[in-house]
Automatic annotation (TrEMBL):
One of its GO terms (molecular function) is DNA binding. InterPro entries: RNaseH_sf, Transposase_Tc1-like. Pfam families: HTH_Tnp_Tc3_2. Residues 71-137 form the Transposase Tc1-like domain. One of its GO terms (biological process) is DNA transposition. This is Transposase Tc1-like domain-containing protein.
Amino acid sequence: MSMGIAHPPVHGRCRSRLDPNPTHLRVRVGLGSGQSGFRRSLLRQDLKRLKGVSLPRSGAHRKLTAEDRDSVYDAIQNRPDITREDLLAEVDYRVKAMSIQRLTHDMGLRKWRKMNRPYLTPIHAAKCLAWALAYRHFTPEDWKRVFWSDETTIERGYGARKEWTSIPPRYQLQERESGIQMTPSKGKQTKQMFWACFRRSAKDWFNSFIRRSYRGS
């Protein structure tokens, strides 16, 4: 009678009962196993193991192919600030968010918080200096003919939501588009935009435009 697939304890009892020079016949007779069951259960399976240690479970089949994993990697490289929801859309939602997290961890990719936009960078300072040198010959009368305008948006709420990127902090300043949080807000609260235009002598115009946005709009 064949004994089927033998367990590790059976292998241990088999080795403990044998002499230093066992033969197939002695092992098979000692375990009470048929020839086919002995070869399948002990010999072939034992060749797959390392020093009698059981093999790990194979687990479920991978739902993501090599092309899917390459697509996820390319999407992160092209858009370092891509969200996990967008990565799930890249693979047609065949896996859960935790699977995407494990996949990016295996790739050696992680997320950092975007640094806040600096008030003045060396590039901006150089541009400001170049602008000042270009108009240094202006007289007070010339500046009276210059009009200045600016605008800003104020949103009701707790502030801008923090954004994340796969760019390391030491490279975020160079990769400004994907490494620095430039957008003031991503909320759905009521917003109000202020715009003003003025000159050196007095303020000429001041306007405000109310823009309302609701959730789902």
